[in-house]
Amino acid sequence: MMRLAILGASGHGKVVADAAGRAGWREVVFFDDAWPELTRNGAWAVVGDTAALLEGFKGFDGVVVAIGNNRIRQVKQRELAASGAQIVSIIHPAAVISEHAEVGAGSVVFANAVLNACSNIGEGCIVNTGALVEHDCVLGEFAHVSPNSVLAGGVQVGALAWVGGCAAVRQLIEVGEGAVIGMGAVVTKDVPPGVTVVGNPARVLGAST
Question: Which of 38, 41, 53, 111 is the most exposed place for a label (fewest CB within 10 A)?
Answer without folding.
Answer: 38
